[in-house]
Every structure is written in structure tokens, then in C-alpha cells.
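User: Here's a chain of 485 residues. Predict its fold as C-alpha cells.
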Amino acid sequence: MNLLSQSGLSSPPKPAHHVRVGAGAGFAGDRLDPAIALAEHGKLDFLIFELLGERTVAAAQRRERETANTGFDPTLVERIRSVAGHCFANGTRIVTNGGAANPRAAAQAVAEAVRELGVDLPVAYVTGDDVLGIVDDEDPLTWETGQPASAADGELISANAYLGAEPIRRALDSGAHIVITGRVADPSLYVGALAHYFDWDHGDADRIGRATVIGHLLECAGQVTGGYFADPVTKPVTGLARLGFPFADVDADAQALLSKLEGSGGEVTTRTCTEQLLYEVADPSAYITPDVIADFSHVSFEEVGDDQVRVSGGTGSPGPSDLKVTLGYDSGWQGEGQISYSGIRSKERAELAAAIVLERLEELYGVDPESVFVEYIGMAAAFRGLVKVDDPAEVRLRIVGSAATRQEAAIIGDEVEALYTNGPAGGGGARKSVHSVVSVKSCSVDRQTIEELVSVEFVDESAEGPVLGGFTDTSPAARRMGGHE
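Assistant: Prediction complete.
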């Protein structure tokens, strides 16, 4: 079967009085076909695209500085274009943080793309997470060093606060069918959609805490259906090439049933859900988001059918007074070179090759050997010396170093490539690259200061209203605004 084919997929019926939210992406490089399948067959109320990492938004800020209106996720428009027709037909609304460094430009590009498809989907965007001006004025201490943000190496080029669910809820309350944000906490993408649909009070910390559990389970998309979980021996998962993305049927009390499309690959089990619940969580009893400090310690999972897991429990306490801010610094350039050695004495030849390059970098170019990182892939390199390998069948030498300019960084790869005819016997498969480096640190800023900056705007203000693109929004908020059942 063609991996991109959507045939043979189906969705279980949605329980009465539930809202269905689906995961369309878990990171910027995620697959597209599972989201298309969900949009077409999932009977979704909301499709969520989570596309930002900490370095992702900092790199987007750098792109925006270099070329205006390029600071949003480069895959965003194609993702929305691919699902827009299905979402229009099925009444599915879209929420994404793919606006990255420029939600306004992202919203304009998306609105143009859906208009070209002949689809009427009002687009709103959220701004206010860019707090570079606040950080410049206040110069807060960074978490990593305890030193002022201004004391870090490199030019500070970005500062983005983690916003919460409230502006997403506002955009949906106002009638948006597609909501595009910049830096928003990952679970908040889901919490905003749920809070809108059920008209929740954001001060209800226990309910928002349970909604955060759901958002956290879904935010990494395929991880809860077996991706990143799978192991051929201890945790075998079938159909990974056709891995389906999860969705959740959520009731008004923020209890949920997790599942995936019937016929898609992967699995939804208590084990996949448990691993994802603990993923990137330092303290399960105090998972801090802008919306709530969630307590995952009493969450329970129950398998109630094939690929169906009921999620219950979870509480919360009021959110923090400060919001986390990711700082991005322009840290120059990085050059890299790789080359392989195989067969007898491959280890010794790789080590000789590294010594040659380091000597030349120091004597010819004045590069400090301590500033260059040498890695022997195939000799347990990932263990950083904790595991010893004496006689590998092959070794891939990797040499990486930082420099102030692109030209200086390129020297490293050039020297590795020159080993072909100027180094040990049998070198092959040389590769070299140069790329700019954006480093990140973290700090916190008073949320009251940040919230003064947050705004929600429509690309086309005339689109505002509860009746969207040929279908009726039946959420409580829309009914208050005059929508119809």
C-alpha cells in the first residue's frame, strides 16, 4: 500500500458531549501524511500542529532579521494547505505555534494559501511573546549561569516568552478557524482549544491541570502511538512506517479517551501513554506551564479497547507569577568534517587522521585544539568515553569547531576532506558543512509585564464571527455570541 494513501483508515464514533482534538505534528520536521489522514478521517473538532523547539524559534528570529517575513516555520503553509480542504469539509479548526518569530506574516501567508484553494477559513494570529525589549531593559539573570543576560557570549537576537492558552481561547471565541501563534507552551495549544469549546474558567486549576495532562500526552504526536517508544526486542511496535497520530475525545471535566485511526500503524497502550506522560518532566507533581502548575502524580491509564486508553486524574494549582523566556544568541559559525576508516586498525588510522587535522589547525591557522571537538563514531561515541571499544570494524571521524566567520569555520571541513590523499590509508566518504550557530539560554520575566503585550488579530477583520466557512461553531462561547446549534 502506498504510504501516503488514506484508504483503509477509519475513526471510531465520537462519544456524545465530547470534543475531539488531534495531533497534527510534534515538531518542525514531523511527517505530513498522518495529519492529512486525521483531517480526512478523524472527525476532529481541532487539529493541532506543534512546530517549535527552543532553538527553532531562536533560529527563526535570526532568519527574520536577515530576510523580512521569513521568520515562521517553513513547513507551515504546506501543512495547512494539505489539510485545509478536509478541515473545511469536516468543520475542523486548526491551532498551531508555527508562527515562530513572525505570527503575523505566517497568518498572511496561510490566509493567502487557503484563499487560493477556494476555502473560507478565517485566520487569526497571536502576538506578544517577543519580549526582547523587556529583556534589554531589565537584563534578568539566566537560569544556566546566574549571570545577567547581557553577560553571555554573542549578540542577544531574540527573547520569546512562553505564552499560555488564554489568547488561543480568545481567538477561537472570536470566530477564528485557524489560529497561529509564536512561542506558546506546547500543552497550551490543546488547553486553549478545550477551554474555548467547553467555556472553562481559566481559574479552575484542577480542570486546567487535567487538560494539561491531555495536551502533554498529545503534544509530541507519534510518540504516544509508539514512536520513540519502540524497541524491536522489549517493546515491539508494528506499522511504524505508517505510524498514525493520536487524538483524544475529551469531556467537559477534562477526562479523555486516547486513540488513533483504525488501520493506521503503531499502538496506543498504557505503556506508550506512561512514557509520554513522563517525557521531559522533571517533577511529575509540579509540571509548570503558563496556565497551571499541573500535578501528574495521580494520573491513571486504563486500556478499554484496542488502541483505546482512558486517561483520568490530574490536578493543578494556579500558574506561576513569572513566565519562562528563551533567549537566543548569535554565536558565530560552526564548521564540520567527517571521514570514514574501515577494516584492520581503523581506530588507529582515525586517531592519526584527527591528530593531523588538529596539528594543522593549530600551526597554520592558530586554532586552539581545546576549542575543537573530535568524535569517533563507531567507538561508543555517544557514551562520551564511558564505554571502551578496542577493535571496531569501522570508525567515522567527526571534527567540529566554532569560529567567528564562515570562512574560518570552513577550514575545518576543508582539512578533513584533504585527508583523502594527505592522510592515513583507506579514508572515504568525506563530508563537510558550515552553518551559523544560535545558542539558547533561559530566564524568567514577570507575566504581568508580558500580558500587556499580548494581542489577537485577524488577517481579515471582516471574517470575525461565530459562523465559520459554511459550518456552525456549536461551542458554548459561540452560542453566547449568537451561533446556532
